[in-house]
UniProtKB/TrEMBL annotation:
CDD domains: SK. GO terms for biological process: amino acid biosynthetic process; aromatic amino acid family biosynthetic process; chorismate biosynthetic process. This is Shikimate kinase. SUPFAM superfamilies: P-loop containing nucleoside triphosphate hydrolases. Binds 1 Mg(2+) ion per subunit. Substrate binds at residues 32, 56, 79, 143. It catalyses: shikimate + ATP = 3-phosphoshikimate + ADP + H(+). Pathway: Metabolic intermediate biosynthesis; chorismate biosynthesis; chorismate from D-erythrose 4-phosphate and phosphoenolpyruvate: step 5/7. InterPro entries: P-loop_NTPase, Shikimate/glucono_kinase, Shikimate_kinase/TSH1. It comes from the Bacteria. Catalyzes the specific phosphorylation of the 3-hydroxyl group of shikimic acid using ATP as a cosubstrate. It comes from Seonamhaeicola marinus. Mg(2+) binds at residue 14.
Length: 172
């Protein structure tokens, strides 16, 4: 089975994915890391040298490649992945995949991301928590349509990573 973790940046896709790997003995694949390995460049470098359209085409191709795996995998997607091309449809149609939207509130995301914004190119330029909250709200408004198509929605607010991982395991 392929467990596909979907959600906004900071929702816990990577950290909860690591918890699930330990509990389920699955392999963890981060799509962005996979793309960087295949393309021999960072996501940032790909955007800068080849542009977003090139990146999004590669992202879709590598997603399709990973959705065909016949092993137990936790697949952590980039926050924008489900929102481009036919990516969400590919995930929903993949016969061995289960999609889970890690849903966090705007406030919780802003609290978490304000401390790590320097490491996140999309938000590094944002000065204040109020601006960040507004930015996240706008993005979530655009993306929730895609995220909500996931087979399961797990609210992460006020839960530990361990509690979220346990809830996901119970869904399986």
């Amino acid at each position: 089975m392929i467990l596909v973790l979907i959600g906004y940046m900071g929702s816990g896709k990577s950290s909860i994915g690591r918890k699930l790997v330990k509990k389920l003995d699955y392999k963890l694949i981060d799509l962005d890391d996979y793309i960087e390995d295949k393309e021999k460049a960072t996501v940032k470098e790909i955007f800068e040298t080849k542009g977003e359209i090139y990146f999004r085409k590669k992202e879709e191709a590598y997603l399709l490649e990973l959705l065909k795996l016949e092993e137990d995998v936790i697949l952590s997607l980039g926050g924008g992945t489900p929102c481009f091309g036919n990516n969400m449809q590919h995930i929903l149609e993949a016969k061995s995949a289960k999609s889970i939207y890690l849903k966090a509130s705007i406030g919780k995301l802003a609290d978490k991301l304000i401390e790590k914004k320097a490491k996140r190119p999309l938000i590094a330029h944002i000065e204040t928590k109020e601006e960040l909250t507004e930015f996240i709200g706008k993005h979530l408004f655009e993306r929730t349509h895609y995220y909500s198509k996931a087979e399961h929605i797990v609210v992460t607010d006020d839960k530990t990573k361990k509690e979220v991982a346990k809830e996901i395991i119970e869904l399986l």
